[in-house]
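REQUEST ID: PR-0412
SUBMITTED BY: lab tech R.K.
PRIORITY: routine
TASK: structure prediction, single protein chain
INPUT:
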Amino acid sequence: MYTIVEAKLLAPQIKLFRIEAPATARRQRPGQFVIVRVHKAGERIPLTVSDSDPHAATIPLIVQGVGKTTRLLNEKGAGDFVLDVVGSLGKPSEIMRFGAVVVIGGGVGAAIAYPTARALKQAGNHVTVVLGARSRDFIILEQEMRSISDRLSVTTNDGSYSQKGLVTDALCHRLTAGPSVNYVLAIGPIRMMAAAADVTRPFGIRTVVSVNPIMVDGTGMCGGCRIQVGTESRFACVDGPEFDARRVNVGRLVARNTMYRQQELRALQEWERARSGNGCRLSSQGASLEPGDQFP
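STATUS: complete
OUTPUT:
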């Protein structure tokens, strides 16, 4: 079992955990992830490690409580345990001196983007970070991103904080205002990442996204995380999680991620009823999901 040494709320339903896992901490590289199992009968969920420090004995994980398993995990606190932490898994982010780069973190995608943005800055790049969320309450890691970037833009859908609009609005402004950008990394909801690729396409800028489809074993054996990249099938757990944004078949990715939506909703409803004893309280939660969002 793996001990939770710290647990704190960053935003509504978004929690930071530091979990004792020294071997993983030593191996972890930006962009990689682990698979966590909360208890013996629980499902396996992929979570990107939101920082990398080979000298640490712990790994930080930022979890958005959306489905049954992530809600169950978010009920835990310091001193509690999770049963399994498997990793590091996946290919690390490509870190090199591109020149001027833009890193986009949409919602909890900021947790995945942070270690790569920091590594890109350390490699000598000029780093612009764009953070976005639906409202001020859901902006996370703003100060951490500010400390490792040359320029930071924050957008909120409802205008409750900083610039009103979408991350793609800030991306458009950066690309047209100059200087020229050589590389874009976009991480967040599938539709947002696809929109970022549409923005960069006329500029011919290399654009990469980090995908997080349904996974089971994290080794490519189960085939659950299969995605189409160009004309080929790839497995996000071993070939990714980062891919050329313009080659990912977004329609198929959305279809695969929503394949078990009804079963996932039913599992959450049953869990909520068992906990509360007063019926289902899910309606507003289900309505808030975007098409293609994972629902672990």
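NOTES: The two ends are 21 Å apart (CA to CA).
REVIEWED BY: pending
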